[in-house]
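Hey team,

Filing this mostly as a record. A colleague (T.K.) asked me to run one chain through the structure pipeline before their review meeting, and I want the input and output archived in the tracker in case anyone asks later how it was produced. No errors, nothing strange. Just documentation.

Input sequence:
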Amino acid sequence: MRFYFPDTPPLPLPAGHRFPAVKYRLLRDLVEREGIIAPSELSPSPPASRTDLERAHASDYVGAVLDGTLSADIQRRIGLPWSPVLARRSLATVGGALAAARDALRDGLSGQLAGGTHHAHRDFGSGYCVFNDLAVTALTLIASGEARRIAILDLDVHQGDGNAAILAGQPDVQVVSLHGAKNFPFRKVPSSLDVDLPDGTEDRAYLHALADVLPAIESFRPDLLLYLSGADALAADKLGRLSLTLEGLAERDRLVFHLGHRRGIPVSIAIGGGYAEPITDSVAGYAGTFRTAREIIG
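Output structure:
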């Protein structure tokens, strides 16, 4: 069983930038230290090809990311300044998602210690997302015949507007999203199934809402489940506005992985957002997802 991580230098962000890039290093350290994922099971994420990127993204936009000619407006919308490291990391995030999905199809479970870039649209990035790893993965595997039907379960606290926009009209891809009703993005794009949650939603109400939508995924009968777990539904998250505990997050993961295990659906994990104070709470939530996955599937 194999998991992936983008093996790139830290993003060169200006002092005081609120994106907690350190969380990726902390997560890798934690899963190795606690034996959740052995070092021998971790591989650097390979870069995505331009051909694969252009299944989901406009050629001009891909070119601008790769050659550093993104407009100032799009960089502001992404929320991260362009740099060669950002371009390399964005390629690795998509390539890692593809590699993990293929491994999941073979082994039943895989994932990446990154990913979930669900706000990236066809011709622009947004919300810390440059390329859309989930959309590229789904469209590539469908086009190659490696999968016939793919479900995306998006439990990041922010609605995956990029997923919904890029994958609209794709009958072989189902997008299910549970998210904060009043949170970013403020103009949401309809998914296959959306559940809007009020501010302050706690464990019990959240888990009931999730249990209500899982039968829709089961009925879709996917060959693969792309699971964007997210840790930003935690009460400690400064951008989340929901009120889940770490225990509630773990129970959420159990529901998802039990579905995969019971129905024989391979699962590939992307970690999505996490902006807790302290950031170690987000990292604990991410690590818990991989721990639960190993207990139930792996």
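Quick notes for T.K.: The beta strands are 3-5, 42-44, 109-112, 150-154, 173-180, 193-197, 224-228, 267-270. The first strand starts at residue 3 and ends at 5.
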